[in-house]
Amino acid sequence: xxxxxxxxxxxxxxxxxxxxxxxxxxxxxxxxxxxxxxxxxxxxxxxxxxxxxxxxxxxxxxxxxxxxxxxxxxxxxxxxxxxxxxxxxxxxxxxxxxxxxxxxxxxxxxxxxxxxxxxxxxxxxxxxxxxxxxxxxxxxxxxxxxxxxxxxxxxxxxxxxxxxxxxxxxxxxxxxxxxxxxxxxxxxxxxxxxxxxxxxxxxxxxxxxxxxxxxxxxxxxxxxxxxxxxxxxxxxxxxxxxxxxxxxxxxxxxxxxxxxxxxxxxxxxxxxxxxxxxxxxxxxxxxxxxxxxxxxxxxxxxxxxxxxxxxxxxxxxxxxxxxxxxxxxxx
Amino acid sequence: xxxxxxxxxxxxxxxxxxxxxxxxxxxxxxxxxxxxxxxxxxxxxxxxxxxxxxxxxxxxxxxxxxxxxxxxxxxxxxxxxxxxxxxxxxxxxxxxxxxxxxxxxxxxxxxxxxxxxxxxxxxxxxxxxxxxxxxxxxxxxxxxxxxxxxxxxxxxxxxxxxxxxxxxx
Lengths: 331, 169
Known about the structure:
The structure holds 2 protein chains of 2 kinds.
Chain A: E1 16-22, H1 35-38, E2 51-63, E3 66-72, E4 77-85, E5 88-94, H2 99-106, E6 110-114, E7 133-134, E8 136-141, E9 144-146, H3 149-152, E10 160-165, E11 172-174, E12 181-183, H4 195-199, E13 203-210, E14 213-216, E15 229-239, E16 248-256, E17 262-272, E18 277-282, E19 295-305, E20 308-309, E21 316-317, E22 320-324
Antiparallel strand pairs in A: 1-2, 1-16, 2-5, 3-4, 5-19, 6-15, 7-15, 8-9, 9-14, 10-13, 10-15, 11-12, 13-14, 16-17, 17-19, 17-22, 18-19, 20-21
Chain B: H1 2-19, E1 24-27, E2 30-33, E3 35-37, E4 52-62, E5 69-80, H2 91-107, E6 112-117, H3 119-124, E7 129-137, E8 141-142, E9 146-148, E10 151-163
Helix pairs in contact in B: 1-2
C-alpha cells in the first residue's frame, strides 16, 4: 500500500497557546520540553510540569543574535562569519488574567494581598497579615486542605488562599512550587512570618468546605502541602514597578496548525524583561458599530531568553523551534 | 470546492445535532437535523423557521501557496416565529438560543475538519472518501436581527478555507 504525498503548506492557526513551567532558581535548572517525546500532546492537557496559561495574542519572538563577517587581508575580504552575540527576546499579551499571568507579566516578585491583622497600618502592598491557619497533613492533598472543623468556620466558599511555609529567617529563593522572590537578608522582609505566603505562587480558591476540609478549585502548584505550611486568606494580587527580583520560567509556545501540523517554540529559560504593563484595545463591538466604547486590557509581557546547553552537542542555545509536519505532507 | 462545502455542512450538522438533538426539520418526508443547504434543495422562496439554512456566496482563491487556498463565504440564515403555545411571545428567546447553538458549534475546537469527498454518496451511495487536507473556518460574524411581522431572523457569515488538492474540482 502506498499513499501519495500532499504538498506542504505554511502552518495556519488562529492563535498561540502558552505553557510555562518552573525553573529551579537555586540550581538554575530549567524544565526541559522534549518534542521528540511529547510534541503531540492535546492542547488542553499539557504534560507535567507544564502549566497552561491559555491563549496569547501578539506573540512576537525576535532573534537578536549578531552575525558578523570575519575579514582578513588587504584589502580586507570576508573569509567567514562569526556569531558575536547570541540573544533572543519574546513579547506577548495574555488573553486571561490569573496569578501566574500577573506574576510573569509583572517582571518582579508579585505579592498576595493577605487579609490584614486588626489595626494594621496601611501599606501599598498590603498591611501586616493576620495570623495564618495551620494545615493538618492527614487528609490534605494538592486540592484539599484539612484545617480542622473549628478553623474551617473562619473560611468561606469562594475565598482565595495562599499556602506556604512560615518565614523563619531563610535567605535565597523562597516560595513553594516555584521561586517567588529572593530574600537577601531577614531584615529586608522584617522577619515577617507571613512573608513567604505574601509572595508565594502556591495559591488557590476555596470551592467547598466540609468536615474541616477546604476543597480548592484546582491543585496547588506545589502539590500536597508539606509539614509546616499554613493557609492565609487573601483578597487579590499586587505587583510593583521596581523590586529586586526577576521572574524566570521555562516556556513553551504552541502554534497548532489546522492541517495537523504544529510548531513548538521552547525557551528553557525566559527571564522577565519589562515591568508590569497592559495593552488596552477597543472591545470589538457588533457589525452595526453601535456598541458602547468599551476597552479591554490584556497583560503585556516581555522576556529575554537565557542560555542552556544542548545535551546532544554541547551547543549553547537560547531557544528550540520544533516543527511537526501534518500527516502525509511532503518534507 | 464541492468537497469543502459538503464537509463543512456535515461537520456543522453533526455538531449542531449533538448540541441540540431536538432541533429537527422535516424535509422531503424525512426528519433530519435542523440544518440544510439551500442549493441542495428544491428551489423555493419559503424560509424554514427554527432551522439553519446555508448559502454559499463569495469565493476567493490564493494561488501563491503550494496548493491553492480557497476561501468561501457561507451565509447561515435562521429565523423563528416563536412557539404557538406561547403565542409567539418566546421568539425573542428562541433566536438567541439559535445564536448560541451556532456559536457553540463553530467555536468547538478544533475549528477544522478532515476534508471528505462525498461525490460517491450522491452517485451510488458509496461512503465518503477521506482526502489529504482539512478544511478550517473563521469565527462567525453575526448580522443584526431583522423583524418581519411576528418573525425575527438573523444571519451569520463564516469564512471557510480549503486547500485545493491535486485533481480536485
